[in-house]
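3.2 Worked example (two chains)
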Amino acid sequence: MLRFAGFELDQQRAELRGPEGEPIRLRPKPFAMLHLLVTNAQRIVSKQELMETVWPNIHVGEDSLFQCIREIRTALGDDQRQLLKVISGRGYLFEAQVSGRPSAFSEQTEPTLAAEDSEGIADTAFEPEIAGQRRRFRFGLRSPAAIAAGAALCAIIGFAIAVLAPDLLFKHEAPTIAMLPIVHASDDRTAAVIANGVTERLINGLAKIDNIRVVAPRSGMTAAKSVQASPSSTQSDFVLQGELQKDQQSWVLQARVIKAATGEVQSVASVSLGIDEPDAQLLQSRLAAGVGDTLTRSLNALLEAGTATGGSNAKVVIEQAAASINQTSRERFLASQTMLENALAGEPDNVDLQVALAALQTRGIQMIWYGPADSAGAESNARSLLENALRAKPRYIPVLEAYCRFLTATNNFIESLVACAEVLDFAPWNGSALYQLGLTQIHLGRFEDALVTFKQADRFDTPVVSRWTWLLGIGWANLFMGHNEEAVRWLERSIAITPASGRPYMLLASAYQRLGRPDEASAAMAKALELRPGSTALNVASPTENVSPIFLEASKQLRQTMVEAGLPER
C-alpha cells in the first residue's frame, strides 16, 4: 500500500482510493502510469520511460501519454499541477511525499527494444521492421505492471470498480489481427508515402484497442508475400489488408478484415478524399480513420456477438424508432419511446434495445421533451438500462458510446471523463466520443485539453456527419481561451456545414462583439434568435451542476457579450 497527499494506491487490488476511502476509477493504462510515477516519486521520469513501461514494445503517439496524464490529474484533483509537474524537456516529476512499500506490482523488466522518442502527437513515418532497429511493430505484449493493472482492474463504467482475478480476466487469449502494409497500384512516390503513412496510423490505432493483439509484418512486401513470410500473420485470427488508389479527383482507400483460417471477408470499408488536400499528414490520418473506424466497429461487434443477443425483430424496431425520432418532434419522440419499450418488454435481455431506449431517453432529456416530473425518472431509467447493458457487454462499443453520451448530457462530468475515454480504448478513431470527451473537459474548465481533443476529432473526421460538432467545439474552446479570431474561423466553418443550429451563431456573435465588430455581432445574434426564438440569457445558461468554477466564470463573461450583441436578458 502506497500513501500520498491523502490518497492510497492499493497495488494488490489495483485501486486508487481518495481521502475518505472512496474508490476513484482509473483505466488500466493511467493506473499503471500513476503507479510508475508514485514509485519513482521525487525522480524525473522521462516520457520515453513512461511510454516504454506502459506500452512495452508498442509504438503509440504522445497523445496516448498525454491522455493518461490528464486522467491522473483529474483523479487526483491536481488542476494546479502541484503533485504531478512537467519538467520542460526532461519529463514528469511526482513531487508528493510517498509512504508505504511497493509490492511486486511495481517490479519492472527492461523493455526488449527502446521506444522511439516521438516529437509528434500520433503521426510518424512508417519504417520497416529490421532486427536491431529501435522500432518494432509487434503488439499486445505487456509489462508486469500493465498486466497486474489490467488483470486486477475492470472498470464497469458508472458504478464501483469490480476487482477480478487475473485468471478470470485473461481466461482466453485476445484474438490477434495481422496488419499488412497498405499497397498501391502506382509508381507515384507520393502514393507510396501516403500508403506507408496510412499503414502506420492504422497500426497505431489498432495497438490501442484493449481486447485485441496486433502484429505487423515488415514493410516493403506485397500482401501475399507478407502473409507467407510472417508466421505471426499465418497464425493470426484475422488479417487486415487494403489498397490505395489515386485518380484525377480523389484518393480512394479500400480495406477489409479477413478471417485467417477460412479466408472469409468479415468486414469491408472504403473512404474517398479529395486529391486537393494540401496537408499530407491530415490526409493520411483521415484515410486511416475512415476505414479504421468502420473495421474496428465491425470487429468489435463480431467479438462481442456471443453474449446477450436478442431476437431478429430488434433491429427492425430500432431502425423504425430512429426514423421516427429523426423527425425531431415531441410526438414522434413519444411514439419512438413506446415502440422501444414494447420491444424491450418482449426481449428484456436484448442489449441493443436497452442501448436504443437509453439513448432515446438521453436525447429527450437534452431536448427538454420530458416534463419536470418525468425527467428524473427518465434519467434514472436510462442509467439503469445502460448499467445492465454494461454488465452484459462491458466491451461493446454501442454500449460504451451511449453511456459516455448519457453521462455528459446529465452533467456527470467526472464519470464521463472516464467513460468517454473508455470508448476510445475500443474505438480509437471515434470522433463522437472525442467530442463528448471535449465537452466534458470544457465543463471541467480544462479548455486547453478540450481544444486538443476537439482538434483530434477533426483530424480523424469520423463520422463525417458529425463534423460540425467538433468544429463548433474548437470555436467554443478558443472563445474561452480568448482566441477570438480563431474562434470566428472555426465557428464559420461549423455554420457552413450545419446552418440550422442557433448555438453556433450565438457563439459567433460573442466572438464578433469581442473583436469590436458590433454590426456583424448583431447580425449573427439575430440569426440565432430566428433559429431559437424565445432564447434569453437565462434559458441559454450553461449547467452549474458538477462544473468547474473556471467554467462558470468564463460562461458568465461569454453570456455578457451575447447580451451586448442583442440576446435578451429575460
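3.2.1 Second chain
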Amino acid sequence: MTDLVDTQLRGDDAAARLPSAPLVHLRRDGVSVVVETRSVPAAAARYATLPTILHWGADLGPVDADALRDVAAALSRQTRPGTLDAAWQASILPVEGDMWAGRPGILLRREGVPVHLRWSSVACTPSADESALTVVAEDATNALRLTSTIAIEAGGVVTVDHGIEHTADDASLPLADLEVDWLEATLPTPKAVDHLTTFAGRWTREKVPTTSLMPRGSTVRQTRRGRGGHDAPTLYLASIDTPRDRSGELWAVHLGWSADCTYRNDRLPDSVDLIGAGELLRAGEIRLMPGEAYASPTAYFAWSGTGLDGLSERFHRFERARPDHPNTPRPLVLNTWEAVYFRHDPVFLHDLAGLAAEVGVERFVLDDGWFLGRRDDTSGLGDWYVDPSVWPDGLAPLADHVHALGMEFGLWFEPEMINLDSELAVRHPEWLLHAPGHVPSPEHLSWRSQHVLDIARDDAYAYILDRLDSLVTEIGIDFIKWDHNRDLVEAVHDGRPGVHAQTLALYRLMAEVKGRHPGLEIESCSSGGARSDLGVLGVADRVWASDSNDPVERQDIQRWTQLLLAPELVGGHVGPTTAHSSGRTTALSYRLATSLMGSAGFEWNIAECTPEERVVIARWAALYKELRHVIHTGTAVHADVRDPALRVVGAVGQNRSEAVFTIASVATLEDSLPERIRLHGLDPQASYRVRLRNEIGASRHGFATPGWMSADEVTLPGSVLGSVGLQIPPLWPAQALVLHLTRV
C-alpha cells in the first residue's frame, strides 16, 4: 500500500502528479529542524498533508537545496509504493487518518462524534531569517483552520504553537459547536533514545527526577490539580543511555502552562518516536462556536549534545533573551513569614526592617496576616484591606520606613483564593469556583480552610484588580509575593469546567497589575514550587522553588528546578537553624552556601540571631552582591560525581573570566579520601586563582584539610581544574565549600 496521500490521489500516475516536497531547513544557535512540506491547494488534490519533521537536533550546517534532498533521502525509510500500513514519519499533528497508531495530536468532536480531519489546503511559510515556519491548513469539510508555528528561539529552544479555529458560517455551513478534547505539540526523537526521565514530588520535596527505560507504546503523565502541582512532570526528557551532567544526547519538552497538563511519549515499532505535551482539558471545557478559536499553550523543546548542562544552557539563554526577563541585580530578600507568622506587631516589624537593612537586605517582604480578620489561615482571604486593629496607621508608615532604609517593600497576597469566613464570601457567594450543588459550608472545611475565587468572572476579576491596584499605589509596593495554596477541585465556570478560563484570567490579571505599575515585580508561589513554569514566568519575575527551608532538601530542589529555570528566577532563602519543614538542624555556613546559588534571601527571624551570626550573614550578604552577576548571568555547570552524597553546582561567567562553585554534601561520604572534583566550563588555556570564600563562616571540614585549603587559595590552569580537579576534604554531612575563581 502506498502512503496515505498517494492512496487518496490514486490514478495510476498519482506519484507523477504529486507536487514536489519542498524541504525547509530551520537553523539557529546550534540547532537544526528539517521540515518536509507539501503546499497543496484544494484544486490540485482531494486532500493535502501536513508537514513532517525529518530532523530535530544538532545543527546540520549550511546545507544547500540539493544536499538537503540527499539528507531527506538518507533519512527515508522506503520509496513508493511501500508495503506497510503505517505512517513511519508522523506529521506535526499526527492523527489516525494518517495511519498513525499512536496517541493523536488532536482530538475534536461534534455532538460526541469524533471529527476526522481532511485538509483541503496546506500553506507553509518560512520566516525571512529561516528560523521559523508557519503552517496554515484548511479543512473545508469540517470548517476548521489550523495555524501552527515552529520556531527556533534564542539558545536553540524550539517552540511549537498550535491553534484551531471554527470557520463555519452559520448561514452557509451550519455545523454544531466544535469540542476540543486536546491539542498537543510533538516532535520526533531518534530510535536510539532508550531512557525517559520525568519529575514528580510532594510539598517541600518538589522536582524529584525518575529515570527509567523508555516505555513501549503511547504513554502519558497527567496533572489534574488546576495548577502544576508539587508532583508536576515539569519536563519530559528522552535520552540515549541515562542522562549525565556533561555528556550525552538529550531531547526534552516543557509545557508553558500553569495548570493541568499532559506529557506524552510514543514509542511504536513501525514509526518514529515522539515526545510532546499539551493542556489537559476537561470534557466540554472548550467548545468553539463559529468564529471562535482555541490556542494551545506553547511547548518548549530543547536538544542537547552535552548532557543536562547543555540542556540548561539552552533554556537559560532563551529565558535571558526574553524582553521582560529581569535584568537588574536580583535583590537580597527578607521575608517575614517565619519571623512572625500571623503575629503582626508594627513595632517589632519596624525594628526588624532596621536589622534587615543593617545586614544588607535589599527587599523587605511582609507576609500573610496584614489584612482584615487574618489572625490565622481560616479567615480573611478576599478582604484585601489593611486591618486597622493590627495596623491602626495602615502599612504606608512601614513601607516608608523600609524605603528610607534603602530597601524595596514587598507584600504577600493570595488573590485567587477566598475564605468562607470573610466579608467577600458573605457578599458574593456566587464568586466561588465550585461545582453547582456542591456549596461549601464552614462545617465542610476545604483544603487549608480556603476555596477558589472565580477570577474568570468579570466582576470578581475587577474587584481583585481594583484592590491590588489601590494597595500598590496607596502603600508604595515594589514587589508582590503572589501565593496560591490549594488545588482547584471541581472547578466550574459558567456551567463548564473552569481551569482553562481561570488560568488565562490569572495571566491577564498579573499582566494588568504590572502594566499599571511599571517596575513592580511579582513572585509566583504556590505552596512552594507547585506553579513554577514558563507560562507563569511570562508575567512573573521569579518563582518560589519550595516551602522547604531545609538546605539538604534544597540542594536537589534548586538543582532540578534550575535545570529548566535560570538561577536568578528561582527564590531560595536561608532558613532558621532548625528547619520548620523537616526538623533538621544544620550549620549556618551550609544554609548560606545553599542559598547563594539562586535568588537569595532570608526566611528567618534574624532578630533572634546572635551578634556573631549577624556579622556572618552581613559578610555573606556582601559576598552575594559581589558574585551574583556571575551566578545570574553565567553558564550553569555541574559535575558527574561518583559519590551520591556529593553535590557540585557552578556558574561560569559569559567570558569565562570568573566562576563560582559550591561543593556540598547531603549525607556521609562513601570514602574517607573523597574523589577530586572537576570544575568544568573554564578556559583550558587560561590560569585561574581559586579562592575559598570563608564569608559563610569558618568551620572544620571533616577531619583532614587539603594543602590548597590551608592557604585559602591556589592558582591552576583551567585544563587541570577541568580534567584533574581539586582534592576536597572528607566533608561531614551537610557541609559546603564556596569557591571563587578568577582568571589571571
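3.3 Remarks
Residues 611-631 form the longest helix (21 residues).
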